[in-house]
């Protein structure tokens, strides 16, 4: 189970880092579609990159994992809400849905619930 947990942490962290660092132009477009401000986008980006960093650090310091996983999961719930709000096709919902499931898995395993 430990290897799956670490793999999930790396997948979530790498995905978030990739989107928020290398595909920032897509983020700008999506936040405009969602009707959210630049300040909100900046806050969300900083928070997600910080949480992703904590998930990676959690590989060596497991006590760091549960809270960042839960908070990242809440960001993914918000992403789902905004995708539904603007009636995006399901394919646009899929990345944040997969990350939400992985965050739930990470949180549950790190808290020894499963």
Task: Outline the fold blueprint.
Elements lengths: L1 H21 L1 H11 L3 H20 L8 H20 L4 H21 L4
Please characterize this protein's 3D structure.
- The chain has about 110 residues and is mainly alpha-helical.
- Helices cover about 80% and strands about 0% of the residues.
- It is built from 5 helices and no strands.
- It has helices at about 1-20, 25-35, 40-55, 65-85, 90-110.
- Helix 4 (about 65-85) runs antiparallel to helix 5.
- The model has no long low-confidence stretch (mean pLDDT about 95).
**Helix fraction?**
over 70%
Largest sheet: none
* Low-pLDDT windows of residues: none
Structure summary, number of beta strands: 0
* Nearest-integer average pLDDT: 96
Portion in beta strands: under 5%
The structure class reads mainly alpha
Radius of gyration over C-alpha positions, nearest whole angstrom: 14 Å
List keywords for this structure.
114 residues; mainly alpha; 5 helices
Summarize the structure.
The chain is globular, with a radius of gyration of 14 Å. The chain has helices at residues 2-22, 24-34, 38-57, 66-85, 90-110.
